[in-house]
Design a protein that fits this description.
Length: about 140
């Protein structure tokens, strides 16, 4: 009843061990939190796989949704980026001269994982001064 209601309270029935549950979920091939949520609501989820695994397995191996699904994705708030000055030096070294070129570069999938896609958020408190500064081009008036 607790699983059905989303309270995760289960009486008399145990959860599948973390490694077994994670392996099962990874075989599903889900790629996002939205896909996981849809699967949980589909009625196809076995009763011994929790809807909220971060609660159930918090002290038993839980790393994050990317690990759970097998995508390797790490939530932005948990990513470790290069220090601002090193990341800015990298971005300037690309020779890009506009925000559009930065977006095109992001779409090329060549960006290292330790360089943020949205540096304005990642470095808002530690040196961010706009895209002209980030990329090293003069702002056009």
């Amino acid at each position: 009843m607790g699983d059905w209601l989303g309270t995760e309270r289960r009486h008399g029935i145990g959860w599948r061990p973390f490694n077994d549950a994670r392996a099962f979920v990874q075989r599903l091939g889900l790629k996002s939190q939205a896909e996981w949520r849809n699967y949980c609501q589909s009625g196809n989820k076995p009763h011994d796989i929790p809807t909220k695994p971060y609660r159930t397995y918090a002290n038993e191996g839980w790393v994050g949704l990317g690990d759970w699904l097998g995508t390797g994705t790490v939530a932005n708030q948990f990513r470790q980026f290069r220090p601002f000055k090193e990341a800015r030096a990298f971005a300037r070294g690309l020779g890009l001269v506009s925000n559009k070129e930065w977006r095109d570069y992001l779409n090329s999938n060549m960006k290292p994982d330790d360089i943020p896609s949205a540096p304005e958020h990642a470095y808002a408190e530690v040196g961010w001064a706009g895209y002209p500064d980030w990329l090293g081009y003069a702002r056009k008036h």
